[in-house]
Specification:
Strand content: 15-25%
Helix content: 25-40%
Structural class: alpha/beta
Distance between the termini: 35 Å
Largest sheet: 10 strands, mixed
Strand order of the largest sheet: 8-7-9-6-10-11-12-13-14-15
Length: 508
């Protein structure tokens, strides 16, 4: 038995690793900046967790202990500094996860988006098929008993892992099967360019065992380029899936029938019907990729489809938080423009004749700056979109930007390089210091003075003209301004939102 200490143990990825280590009989301790449901769940499993970071926690560890950190832990952290000074082995969390994977057939699911849901689909379907996998997923799996439902220590020889590409840490794994949902550029603050981002996925594919396989989505251009590159090398088997006619597994998006190649269909039918409990065309596509992996692991396609039908979602992936007076609130972690687009299309199918209203909090200033136009185009799919900030925006110079299609100037702060959100359809979503020139369909998040400063009161410009109505205010003193011509289109009874737990709208 070894001793492990995890710094930031309450995080989604770290808490799962801690739980898996404890299930293996390892001595596990850790610390986190604050108490949480994950911290309490770990304590219930016998893991010693301290709230707050102190060097003494590491200095008291037995000789030969391992200290695990994530990319978010800075060198100035007192526990990491103490570990360095004591000569203890310091491992990135990906290395700790790789240690847990040893002796298993590893399925690593990667991609800019879709990997949490797809890896969870695989874990559930494999369990339904009787393979009892181990798994480590960066999100809770619906139906679990506590906040650590994203991890499980099974008795089988398969280990499913969500493989994080954000900092290249997925290069620590040697998968038997690698599933790549897409290679759409993201984390460009770290990689710098599309080419560098695609190269790290090529490096990841090179880690697949020679007797294994690479499964990619043929509907994504980046993933398709990856497949062509790996096929040309001829080192491992490559299978593609998607709605494209030339994919190995072809999905009919209307009937949800999947046509399988003979090598996967075996003696069964070459077509399998997918019936899912989660909405959205993107989830049907994810399930098609999962079906390919299940077949490669020896699960008959019919059984695989049956197992996928038992999947009921993951936390913060179209998670139903409750309803009040006809208003249904759904929480989703979508933080990339493509994810937001898929989410709102799924919401539209569920809402039917109802309206889709969005409260969106950007995640990472760098991503928002890189994809500002794409985010705005995605948010334009909603009937109303409000962009929420947390009051902790970085200090950046103000920058006046001009929209040539509208001919007005908007002063924007809060995003690197003074970035703004805009769409060519005419709906402008921006963060501004002066709510001037509002038109029908626009919503601005503003730091401008609003009098008299309460929800439902008029919003005045610097000349004292009424330009809109204050729709809401947050703790940071920012206001959501809606133009006068749009007010009549808002919900007649917006107080219904107050009856739904406010935490359900918070973004972490």
């Amino acid at each position: 038995m070894s001793a492990w200490h995890l710094v930031g143990i309450g995080g989604a990825g770290m808490s799962v690793i801690a739980a898996l280590l404890a299930a293996r009989g390892e001595q596990v301790s850790g610390s986190d900046a604050r108490a949480s449901a994950s911290v309490e769940a770990l304590r219930a499993r016998g893991v010693e967790v301290h709230v707050g970071h102190e060097a003494a926690l590491v200095e008291a560890l037995p000789e030969g202990s391992r200290v695990v950190v994530s990319t978010a832990v800075r060198e100035s952290n007192p526990e990491l500094a103490a570990a360095r000074a004591s000569g203890l082995e310091v491992l990135h969390r990906s290395r700790a996860l790789a240690w847990l994977m040893e002796g298993h057939r590893v399925v690593a699911v990667a991609g800019a988006h879709g990997k949490t849901t797809t890896s969870a689909m695989l874990a559930v379907a494999l369990r339904e098929a009787g393979l009892d996998p181990s798994f480590a997923i960066g999100g809770s799996v619906m139906g679990g008993s506590d906040a650590l439902s994203g991890g499980g220590a099974g008795s089988g020889d398969v280990f499913v892992a969500e493989a994080d590409e954000s900092d290249g840490s997925f290069l620590a794994y040697e998968p038997f099967v690698a599933l790549v949902t897409n290679v759409e550029p993201d984390h460009l603050d770290h990689f710098g360019s599309r080419e560098a981002f695609e190269q790290v996925f090529a490096d990841f594919a090179a880690r697949v065992r020679p007797d294994g396989a690479l499964v990619v989505c043929a509907d994504d251009e980046g993933a398709r380029r990856l497949a062509e590159r790996v096929r040309a090398e001829g080192r491992v088997k490559v299978l593609s899936y998607g709605t494209s006619a030339d994919a190995d597994l072809v999905l009919d998006p209307h009937t949800r029938l999947v046509r399988l190649p003979e090598e996967l269909a075996g003696e069964g039918s070459p077509e399998v019907q997918l019936e899912l409990a989660v909405p959205g065309a993107h989830n049907v596509l994810n399930a098609t990729g999962a079906l390919a992996v299940l077949a490669l692991l020896g699960v008959p396609p019919i059984e695989g489809a049956r197992g996928l039908a038992a999947f009921h979602g993951t936390g913060r992936r179209f998670e139903d938080r409750g309803s009040a007076r006809g208003v249904r609130v759904v929480d989703d972690y979508a933080h990339h423009p493509t994810e937001v687009t898929a989410l709102l299309r799924a919401a539209r199918t569920v809402a039917g004749a109802g309206r889709v209203l969005v409260l969106f909090q950007p995640h990472l200033f760098s991503r928002t700056a890189h994809f500002q136009r794409e985010f705005a185009e995605a948010l334009s799919l909603a009937d109303l979109a409000v962009v929420r900030t947390d009051g902790e925006l970085p200090e950046v110079p103000e920058l006046a930007t001009k929209d040539p299609e509208r001919g007005d100037t908007i002063t924007v702060v809060g995003y690197p390089q003074g970035g703004r959100l805009t769409v060519t359809s005419g709906r402008v979503i921006a963060r501004t210091t002066d709510p001037l020139n509002l038109n029908l369909g626009e919503v601005l998040v503003t730091d401008a003075a609003v009098e008299p400063g309460s929800s439902g009161s008029p919003a005045l410009d610097k000349r004292g003209r009424v330009v809109g109505v204050v729709y809401a205010m947050n703790a940071a003193g920012q206001s959501f301004i809606v133009p006068v011509s749009t007010v009549h289109e808002l919900l007649e009874d917006d107080a219904a939102f107050d009856e739904v737990e406010k935490s359900s709208l918070d973004c972490e």
